[in-house]
Amino acid sequence: MTDTDDQLVVDFPLRKEGEEFPPPRYAEYRQREGLVLSYLPDGKPVWLVTRHAAVREILTSKKISSNPDREGFPNIGETMGVPRQDQIPGWFVGLDSPDHDRFRKALIPEFTVRKVREMRPAIQAVVDRVIDDMLAAGNEADLVNDFALPIPSLVISALLGVPEADREFFESRTRTLVSIRTSTDAQRDTASRELLRYINRLIEIKSKWPGDDLPSRLLAGGVLEPRELPGVLLLLLIAGHETTANNIGLGIVSLLENPQWIGDDRVVDELLRLHSVADLVSLRVAVEDVEICGQTIKAGEGIVPLVAAANHDETVFACPHAFNPERSAKQHVAFGYGVHQCLGQNLVRVEMELAYRTLFERVPGLELAMGPEGLPYKYDGVLHGLHTLPVRW
Amino acid sequence: MRITVKTETCVGAGQCVLSAPDVFDQDDDGLVTVLDAEPGPEHSDDVNLAWQLCPSGSITVTEPAVQD
């Protein structure tokens, strides 16, 4: 990479404690011609991409790879709460087409609009049960720990056919994995290994006694090899857990600040856009030279598309920092774009819709138990979200 | 307008079904299928949204020639 006079060079981390999200400097980057050069904690250069059209172009380009084993792939020193899982067979977010497509095609039937619609009663039952527990425990709660995290964990356990008796085990281990403030590295490592061991056992059991669940259907389908299934199931869990929980938690804060929108389902895509929790998830590396925003990205150079920056591009979303469910927010790239776009996006939308609707219906006097300015935001990981969300009613 | 789709590139995101449910559906494999290949102008906003949101560029919308 060459440094020229007008080339802006910035260092990681891009986010600082205590500042708003997305960081104000994203708007500066977006205003500039070309791309922004940045250096990762390991000293390697990467290109930051901030405009909506450019991010969509990156995420659909055949000259750009998602494979973390390729030379030049950005290593931002953080993964989503677990050790790097790239080497596990079946971890197909790290594969490019056509290798990737076999996995995607095997899983698509599980996440269609129709299938997710059929799952609504089960998701509603999960939400109700989590609220029952919360109400039974008193008149205050931490909505991250007591509401936002258990919902996706229990929904994924249902999807994976985790027996009722194991759900508490499953939920507690998944919670440990994402609780970077209250668990140690060693505890998270143990939880990760216990979960993988559990998933392996679950697959053995499903191959002997198939049920009406995703692992049994994947086994029967024969498209994926049994050795690939643990990685696939772990990926579904990790991709769908903290991301969804962060969206639920941040969305509740926005709705408490804008109570006129409570009960309106149009909030979901606007909240996905506004909060853009997976800002740093869609990392890439160029396989061939490719020109983006007038800048040549050379083969082997790393690329960091900033999803939150794209979702606050004022040329696409007027007054991007405003929470405005009446705008057309659906072109957001909160779920990514291209062949890796979030497989579970329709499921997440329903989880968010039912979580908000049911919470505000069943707990009408809900309010923050602290000033909103003091809420502990995650600023140092790959995901935007809240560590805790103390409320009372 | 006339709609064509490519199932070979479809990634089953389902955004077309959500945007224009009278025009698009997903088959048993979760891939795009067209319910109405020549929808009336009342569907043009929905179809345009589906075309814009499709993450894999698998939808093509054309204006058929009068002589067709």
From TrEMBL, chain A:
InterPro entries with a match to the protein in the record: Cyt_P450 (IPR001128), Cyt_P450_B (IPR002397), Cyt_P450_CS (IPR017972), Cyt_P450_sf (IPR036396)
Pfam families (alphabetical): p450
Gene3D superfamilies: Cytochrome P450
Signal peptide start and end residues: none
Top-level division of the source organism's lineage: Bacteria
Record key words, sorted: Heme, Iron, Metal-binding, Monooxygenase, Oxidoreductase
PROSITE patterns: CYTOCHROME_P450
Keyword match Metal-binding: yes
Family the UniProt entry places it in: Belongs to the cytochrome P450 family.
Protein's name according to its UniProt entry: Cytochrome P450
Automatic annotation (TrEMBL), chain B:
InterPro entries, per database record: 3Fe4S_ferredoxin (IPR001080), 4Fe4S_Fe-S-bd (IPR017896), Fe-S_cluster_ET (IPR051269)
Signal peptide coordinates: none
Record-annotated 4Fe-4S ferredoxin-type domain positions: 1-29
Alphabetical keyword list: 3Fe-4S, Electron transport, Iron, Iron-sulfur, Metal-binding, Transport
Cofactor(s) this protein cannot do without: [3Fe-4S] cluster
Keyword Electron transport found: yes
Gene3D superfamilies: 3.30.70.20
Domain of life according to the entry: Bacteria
Physiological role: Ferredoxins are iron-sulfur proteins that transfer electrons in a wide variety of metabolic reactions.
PANTHER family per the UniProt record, alphabetical: FERREDOXIN (PTHR36923)
Name of the protein in question: Ferredoxin
Protein's organism: Actinoplanes couchii
Upper taxonomic lineage: Bacteria, Bacillati, Actinomycetota, Actinomycetes, Micromonosporales
